[in-house]
Amino acid sequence: MYNNFMQQADLPEDWERQRAFLAVLREGSLSAAARALGLAQPTVRRRIEEIEARTGAVLFARSPSGLEPTETALALRDHAEAMERSAESFLRAASVPPGEISGTVRIAADTVMASDVLPALLAPLLRAHERLRVAILSSGPDGGAVQRETDIAIWLDKPEQPMLVTRRIGSLAFGLFAHASYLEARSRPKSLAALDGHVVIGTLPDARPGDSDDAPPLPREHQRLLCDSRSAQLGAIRAGLGIGLCPLPLARRDPNLIRLLADAVAFQHDVWLAYHEDLRPLARVRAVHDALADGLSDYLGKPLQRLAPRSWPGAD
């Protein structure tokens, strides 16, 4: 049954059926899927029924909360999403003439990088190319998977996702900081044990992986303000609420941020750029990638050798 579906799934008209299948899978009902696709509900129902008729498989079962996917539907999800990515890559590649730097490039980055670093790096590029649009998508510390909604991702530590072209840009150093206003009425701690009595800004136990990876552990009992993102931590430090981890390049820009326990708390995350290999022919992706590589290498304090166009990552 499953193999029969896959053998027939290369027909062009199957994409519209699989598009309806994905929408129902994601939305949980025919009516919600129809709204998401801009179609009539009977059209979505018919396309699901056509898949079921051709395969002999039941894809969804009714439940009090809507439509529940069967095991067969869940097994087919990755294949349908692969077709979705291919269709969207086709449309992106066809959206502008070859070599023209225009259209939209979507960048995923962690919250601090997205709010405090990328805008300044991208400003010159946007001024130089009036038809270029950039969408910045805040994500977890790993930059988020390079999926259908993302063209380029900035990762902290090397990504392992398959089918990616990656490049290490440098290392982002972190240290422990407090605002001068916080330290005015308190003595500076001389050791991690001396954090007792201070407000330590930490991460929630269920914070996304990477928010504190490789960092020397800060005593959990002293963590009185817990955040689920680096940007929230940084905002709390800048507001003088307590002591927390901050990227060194950001701290250097604010003379009111005072580094503490430099010998005891110092660690780094590698910074990587990643994009899906099927985007390599797009001039706009290349332009944004190069601007990010140059800007981030300067930001990290390690000049990066500029790649010639024929040597661009993934170029033939």
Largest sheet: 7 strands, mixed
- Secondary structure: helix percent: 25-40%
| H-E string | HHHHEEHEHEEEHEEHEHEEH
The end-to-end span amounts to: 40 Å
- How many β-strands, per DSSP? 11
Mean pLDDT: 80
Uncertain regions: pLDDT < 50 for 5+ in a row? 1-12, 141-145, 206-215, 307-316
Percent of residues in beta strands: 15-25%
Q: What structural class do the secondary elements suggest?
A: alpha/beta
Backbone CA Rg: 24 Å
How many helical stretches? 10
Shape call? globular
Please summarize what this structure is.
The chain is an alpha/beta fold. The protein has ten helices and eleven strands.
Structure, described:
This protein has helices at 2-8, 14-27, 30-37, 41-55, 71-94, 111-128, 180-183, 230-238, 248-252, 283-299; strands at 60-63, 66-69, 103-110, 132-139, 152-156, 164-179, 200-203, 223-227, 243-247, 257-260, 266-276. Strands 3, 4, 5, 6, 9, 10 and 11 form a seven-stranded mixed beta sheet that branches. Strands 1-2 form a two-stranded antiparallel sheet. A two-stranded parallel ribbon has the order 7-8. The chain is of the alpha/beta class and 316 residues long. The protein starts with a helix and ends in a 17-residue tail after the last helix. The chain is built from ten helices and eleven strands. The radius of gyration is 24 Å and the shape is globular. Helix 2 (14-27) packs across helix 3 (30-37), helix 3 packs across helix 4 (41-55) and helix 6 (111-128) crosses helix 10 (283-299). Helices cover 38% and strands 23% of the residues. Strand 1 and strand 2 form a beta hairpin.
